[in-house]
Amino acid sequence: MKKKQINLIIALMLAAVLCLALFLTGCGRQRGGEAPSEQNAAGEPEALSGKEEGEPEEVPAPTPTPVPELTFPDGSVHMADEKTLDLSSLSHADVGEAAALLRQMPNLKSIDMGSDGAWTGDPEPLTAETAAVERSPEADRDLTWSDLRTLQEAAPGAEILYRFRFYGRDFTTLDEEMDLNHSQMTDEGAAVREILPLMSRCRYLDMDSCGVSSEKMAEIRDAYPEMDVVWRIWFANNTFTMRTDSERLWCAFFADYMTDEYTQELKYLTHLKYLDLGHNLQLHNWDFLRYMPDLEVCIITASGWDTLDMLENCTKLEYLEIIPMSRIELDLHPLAGMTELEHLNMSGMGKTEGWEVLLNMKKMQRLWIGRATAYYFPEGAMDQILEALPNARIVYETDTSAVGSWRTDPDGSIPPRYALLREQFDYDHWPQVAPYPYNDPKCKAPWEA
Asked: pLDDT digits over 268-306, tens only?
């Protein structure tokens, strides 16, 4: 082998040994034999994350939005998330600015608006003079009811507490009752209607003898169906008077006063349960009965009606006397919804239509049809009625009336239902229970009692 070849081999071997030494030195610099860190695009090593491949990155929590502070016209500072607020010193001039701030407080539940300056919480006894004053002169607050409604609209989820004196009496907007009886109003209740939108808890309003017409009182009642609105009516040429929450009316045998002209106020007695207007032949317009859906007892025997249409809405009737003064042709279809009827006296009518409605009165206990009426029933009709009402005592072979067997049993005793009827109308204490004004203690003003 030539000398040049030997030298080349030696050089290659030395180069190989040097490369091996350099490799081993680099490996020794790695920590304990760990894999080297990855490098970034600049050739610099990346820090090890310790996460497995595919594991999602942690999302940092958002920085909470600071709750804004609101400065009200009185200088007080409130957080926008507060639930209660005291604006008892707010004036009329500041209402607009305050309303704008209230719209930024969605969590508000109550706002204390203080008082009108006349409210004491312990008023003096009511007098005719104080009952004539809508807003007491001691009131020094310039807030109006319109201002309060503006604030209410700005914070619809909050209750507004405001203390005020009205027609000589102390109230708050959170009261459940408002008694204004015998307050001397000359505005047809306009001032009351300004307040009622703020009386969110009120369920009873007494405006007995306030001088407001029944038409306007009915508008208030209809605007607040959740509220029991009570006032006083007069009828029978101002001979009788009743409060609209009355449940009983007995005015039989008053033909000279119970006429169409003097009875239409009766339609406001929407709470009536027991009604006896028998023997009033001058009364022909009975439409007021359409407004008495709670009637349970109705006696209109021998009166001036010639149709039963006015009874269509009286589906709660349990006792009904409709004996005409003389033979008339009548349609019974208006009685179709009276499935609660237990006692019905319709004898003496003569020819009738709609006898089929009797078949659905399954609760019937006593049914007085009378011979004159049954005579006009088609063949087989009575057989169907007897079969459909097996538990009822049905009189159809003889004529009868409101007296006789209807109110007295064959042995002379009083039927239990008629005994109960006397209690319901308190017949035994007539005329002390008649609707004369002097029989009603509530007809007097509080200062006259």
From this structure: 999 999 999 999 999 999 999 999 999 999 999 999 999
- For residue 219, is it within any domain? no
- Cα 313 to Cα 295, 308, 310, distances in angstroms: 9, 11, 8
Q: What is the domain extent for residue 84?
A: 69-206
Between CA 341 and CA 357 the distance in angstroms is 11
In a domain, 244, yes or no: yes
pLDDT of residue 85: 97
- Region 3-23: mean pLDDT is 57
Per-residue pLDDT reduced to its tens digit, 202-233: 999 999 999 999 999 999 999 999 999 999 99
Rounded Cα–Cα distance for residues 333 and 336 (Å): 5
| Host H or E run for residue 395 | strand 393-395
Outline where DSSP puts E strands in 167-303: 169-172, 177-179, 204-206, 228-230, 232-235, 240-243, 248-250, 274-276, 297-299
**Cβ-based neighbour number of residue 87 at 10 Å:** 24
Q: Is the residue at 82 inside a domain? A: yes
Q: Beta partners for 179?
A: 206
Q: 3-class SS at 319?
A: strand
The alpha-helical segments, DSSP class H, found in 118-179 are 145-154
Full-prediction pTM beyond 0.90? no
